[in-house]
Amino acid sequence: MNLVLNNAHVGHKHPCMEPLTMTFGAGGMHVVLGANGTGKTTLLRTVLGVQAPLAGQITLDQGEGKLHTNDARAWGKHVAFVPSMPPKHVGLTVAEVLSLSGPWEEAVSHHPQLEPWMNQRLSTLSDGQAQQVMVARAMLQSNDWLMLDEPTAFLDVRGQRHLWGMLTTHLNCGGSVMMATHDLRGVHRWMQEAPAEVAAVSSIHVLSSSGLSPLATDASLDALEAALG
Amino acid sequence: MKTRLVFLLMLLALVSHVALGEVEIVWGELLGALLTGGEVNELHATIVKEVRWPRALTAMTSGTLLGWLGLLMQTWFRNPLAGPGVLGITSGGSLGVALAVLLGLALPAWMAAAMGCFAVLLLIGVGARRFVSPVTTLVFGLMISYAVSAVVTVLQSSATAEALQTYVFWGMGTFGKASFLQATSCVALQLLLGMWMIRRAKWLDMWTLGEDLAQTMGVPKARLHLEILLLTGLILGVVTSVCGPLAFLGLATPHVYRFFHPKRGHMDAIQGIGAWGALLALLADGVVRWTDSLAMHWPLNAVLAILGAPVVLAVLWKRTHDWS
Predict the structure, then answer these.
(1) Cα–Cα distance between A166 and B80 in angstroms, integer?
(2) Segments forming the whole domain that contains residue B269
(3) What local confidence, expressed as pLDDT, does residue B195 receive?
(4) Are the C-beta atoms of B181 and B157 separated by less than 8 Å?
(5) How would you classify residue A56: left for phi > 0, otherwise alpha for psi between -120 and 50, otherwise beta?
(6) pLDDT tens per residue, range B80-108
(7) Total domains in the fold of chain B
(8) What is the pLDDT of residue B324?
(9) So where are chain A's domains?
(10) Structure ipTM
(11) Which helix (H) or strand (E) holds A133?
(12) How many helices (H) and strands (E) does chain B have?
């Protein structure tokens, strides 16, 4: 379903950017770039429904059906979250963590690399491994939208590759992705390799106090860096 | 270790708690008389019914309840060092009891204690929203403890000798003063908290993954907070007013469980910690009763601290890298 922001005022007490009115197309990879402190996390929390917009509304639209962020139960079936840092000190096993959101066998069938960790505690995995588990969990929760907050920030090169691979799987299964990130190289490479039909509905935006300004999805790495600089 | 084994040990402790004591009870005779409707030794029947059984029941249920509340606080604050005692909630209960006993307020002690617990919980709840670091929350709880103790000391300085004595003895902690009614209400509270925790086990598991993530997974934060606040305040208030401000059990029982058992999901932890809490409380009270029989009369809180603190330290020492 399309994610629609309608005059959404985002912030704590005071809006931290101009009101947002835009549509993120279903089936696409939507990247939000922005310097630290521009409100990427606040935007994501608002879209996730953890924090209410100060004004305006955020909905998932398809035909006449419409879902609102304040309907937490229904929203959670369509929108799942992957935080920047995988949770620490979690003694649950990987299978137990996955089971909180669905049958863990399903996650293993999509991501065979998770299989050997099933009976290990999440706390014993490396950050890269734990982050893959968190993405797999989010995919069990929602086959529609995944929201990721700088998911590659704590990962090494291999971890980043696995993560992008899992997101590709999610998009191939008909899901949509929105992520806040600093990983310009990863974004650039992914956009270059993306199939045309996915790229057509994908977007890259730069977040600043004046709101979200779009960049071309086929922008060069230099152009991405310049937009952030 | 299997939870079933702990449960069996707990039952064993319960039976010996009722069966053994200073007055030797001829069980064959007593049970035979009860079954055949023969003449019952009134003294023995009274001792079992009105002294030992309520005491054993209170120890068992309070141990379980405190263990569960410890688990709940540790999950809620995602902090292995949280517990009703550490966060100053028990002190809030003490203040309530102090107001009732020392000032002679016309208020039942359990209600005063529950109100004190609520007040501190509310303060911590508000504070925890502001404090990013769990350590700050702990220090906040510690400061509340200090402030409350100071108020209690002031109250003590102007109290009558009699009231002061009552309060000091209450502060030493005991399972032995509980009436049958109080013991029964502890059982009712155990049923209440047990059913609530089983029902909310999944939410609590999700909560350990992080506050924002748990909310996006369907945990209604405000409702969970309210339920935890009400249950903890009520239960800790009742247990504290009946048994005194028991140190250590709430904090330590979850750690003892984690030391012996590998499972970390709340469904397993609830059962294991419930059994361990009852077992530890019964054992500690066994020591208290043993010293009573030697005319040494160690207070319960002293036994809990002497036996408990080294255990907790040992557990923490060995497991600092993985508390969960």
Answers:
(1) 33
(2) 54-319
(3) 98
(4) no
(5) left
(6) 888 888 788 888 989 999 988 888 887 88
(7) 1
(8) 43
(9) 2-223
(10) 0.93
(11) helix A127-141
(12) 15, 0
User: Cβ contacts of residue B37 below 8 Å, gap of 6+?
Assistant: none
What's the rounded Cα separation, in Å, for the pair A132 and A122?
11
pLDDT given at position B319? 62
Quick one: pLDDT at residue B321?
43
User: What pLDDT is recorded for position A89?
Assistant: 84
DSSP code, position A121:
B
**A2-223: CATH number:** 3.40.50.300
Q: Any idea what DSSP says for residue A88?
A: S
Strands A55-62 and A2-9 turn out to be antiparallel
pTM: 0.91
* B217 and chain A in contact, CB less than 8 A: yes
Parallel, antiparallel or unpaired: strands A211-215 and A203-208 = antiparallel
For CA atoms A17, A18, A21, A27, the dihedral sign is negative
Within 10 angstroms of residue A141's Cβ, the number of other Cβ atoms is: 21
| Residue B8 belongs to some domain of the structure | no
Q: List CB contacts (< 8 A) between A92 and chain B.
A: 205, 208, 264-265
Question: Residue B134: pLDDT band by 50, 70, 90 thresholds?
Answer: low
* CATH code of the domain covering residue B271: 1.10.3470.10
In the numeric block, which tokens belong to residue B126? 């508000």
Closest chain A residue to B210 measured between Cα atoms?
A87
Q: Are B65 and B212 in contact (CB under 8 A)?
A: no
Euclidean distance between CA atoms B299 and B174, whole angstroms: 7
Nearest C-alpha of chain A: how many angstroms from B271? 16
User: Is B23 a member of any domain?
Assistant: no
Across the interface, whether the CB atoms of A81 and B218 are under 8 A apart is answered no
For residue range B107-121, what is the model confidence (pLDDT) as tens digits?
Answer: 888 888 888 888 888
Distance (Å, whole) CA A176 – CA A48:
14
Distance (Å, whole) CA B108 – CA B92: 15
Here the tokens at position B323 are 């508390």
Residue B273 contacts A, CB cutoff 8 Å: no
CA gap A215, B266 in Å, rounded:
47
Task: State yes or no: pLDDT of A144 exceeds 90.
Answer: yes
Chain B contact present for A95, CB below 8 A? no
- Mean of the per-residue pLDDT values for chain B? 88
Distance CA A220, CA A30 (A): 17
pLDDT in tens, A73-94: 889 999 999 999 999 889 999 9
Q: Is B220 inside any structural domain?
A: yes
Judge whether B235 lies within some domain: yes
Pick the closest to residue B22 from B283, B285, B293, B299 (CA basis). Answer: B293
